[in-house]
Design a protein that fits this description.
The chain is 44% helix and 20% strand. By secondary structure, the protein is α/β, with parallel strands linked by helices. It binds 1,4-dihydronicotinamide adenine dinucleotide and magnesium ion. Residues 13, 17, 69-72, 74, 78, 236-237, 252, 255-261, 267-268, 271, 306, 308 line the site of 1,4-dihydronicotinamide adenine dinucleotide.
Length: 330
Amino acid sequence: MTHEVAVVPGDGIGTEVIPAATRVLRATPVDIEFVRAAAGDETRAETGEALPERTRQVAAAADATLFGAAGETAADVILPLREVVGSFANVRPARSYPGVDALAPATDIVFIRENTEGVYAGIESEIAEGVRTLTRVTTETACERIAEYGFSYAAQNGYDQVTVAHKANVMRRTDGLFLDAVQRVGERRGVSYETALMDALAMHLVMRPEEYGVVICPNLAGDVLSDLAAGLVGGLGLLPSANVGPDNALFEPVHGTAPDIAGEGLANPAAAILSASMLLEHLGHPETATRVGDAVKTVLAEGPTTPDLGGEATTDDVTDAVLAEMEMEL
Ligand code: NAI
Ligand code: MG
């Protein structure tokens, strides 16, 4: 079966790390047809639009999308693209790897963040001069959906520990609805979990990250806490992510276009290749996904590494090493 994957490199190092990731995908036995599509600052300069209609259509029609990064048009590109693929869950693993200098070397946490509502629903108004309000949207459907996804992710990926972040002591009705929904889903599935106030959780994540596994979060909490954990495990060049919907998904490195190093061929391709590994898993190829992830891990431990990790290798050197490692594992 051939999978159709939309490839949107975007700007800056997106145009360097996404080709690295597609090279790795091509080297796997999985049958993928790539459809390239344009988006970002350069696309806007050329066409007047950061996200052309064709790119939307390509992403909507594909089985999955691999996205790099966009520059100042990032919000005009990635937010609509996440919507185009119908994603509701933002999956952000924060893992430390052997050989990589990290604040917390024993971290393996996956944040499952609700991606459609909460305080990011975009409902803001000015009710009087100098007074503005924001409406937080919490729906039972979205809460149950993210809880289902989070618990099932934990079960499928071998995480025993599930933590649910909230602030229901203050946001009683909205986070109250969230916690009730999580409880219903938890009971239905017969699983146990703990709840944690998100502010205290931020402290515990820093002090004892090794005690956490899957963390299910409302939108804003997931955004902040996953960035916090990213800081614990080392550079941005290592963090992949997924935006998952019922029947489509988009995968992207967490980092941006890195204008300070763009064009030099020195970007770390690990985040993009690990995003490609998540894409393989989503397409139903968990063994190949693991092989790609393991090859990246080995190269991170043994080198070569790019300058962000203290090495002198190029994006291509690291990609070559990952490909060589995958061949050894065959
Ligand atoms: P950034 O992630 O592009 O860079 C932050 C720092 O990390 C820089 O020093 C950069 O060199 C380094 N870095 C990032 N990825 C790296 C990699 N793969 N290898 C080696 N070093 C890496 O974030 P910044 O500087 O805040 O934003 C730059 C541009 O990217 C902005 O225009 C912003 O709007 C855009 N951006 C886009 C995102 C997206 O499309 N999803 C996400 C974040 C930022
Ligand atoms: Mg963020």
